[in-house]
């Protein structure tokens, strides 16, 4: 399996490298206030791809931290329930559940 993933990585590298070699012509990017940026097309594509990936990771950061916080809360609840079960304390029942007598 490692050989196949290495082979796929090598093929993708060759394809992307060939794409880079075919797209070396200069392009102009026009921004507001008459600001202009000139450079090779492949570097412009790489720059905007990297910026998009960075912004995507930045957008997911609050979700990741929320999931980590919830996981920590659930682990704490599980540890508390396990410690009360080991001490022989009766488990609290949810509202509306009748306990047998």
Adjacency order of strands in the biggest sheet: 1-2
Task: Quickly count the helices.
Answer: 2
Q: Per the principal axes of the C-alpha atoms, what is the gross shape?
A: elongated
Mean pLDDT: 87
Total number of beta strands? 2
Order of helices and strands: HEEH
Major sheet characteristics: 2 strands, antiparallel
| Termini Cα gap | 59 Å
Strand content: 5-15%
Helical residue percent band: 55-70%
**Which residues form runs of ≥5 with pLDDT under 50?**
none
Radius of gyration: 28 Å
What structural class is derived from the secondary structure elements? mainly alpha
Quick description:
The chain has helices at residues 2-22, 41-87, and strands at residues 26-30, 36-40. With 101 residues, the chain is mainly alpha-helical. A hairpin with a 5-residue loop joins strand 1 and strand 2 (36-40).
Key words describing this protein structure:
67% helix, mainly alpha, elongated, 101 residues, 2 helices, two-stranded antiparallel sheet, 10% strand, 2 strands
Plain-language structure description:
The protein is mainly alpha-helical. The chain has a domain at 21-80. The chain contains two helices and two strands, in the order αββα. The chain has helices at residues 2-22, 41-87, and strands spanning 26-30, 36-40. The chain has a two-stranded antiparallel sheet with strand order 1-2. Strand 1 (26-30) and strand 2 (36-40) form a beta hairpin. The protein is elongated. The N and C termini lie far apart (59 Å). The relative contact order is 0.05.
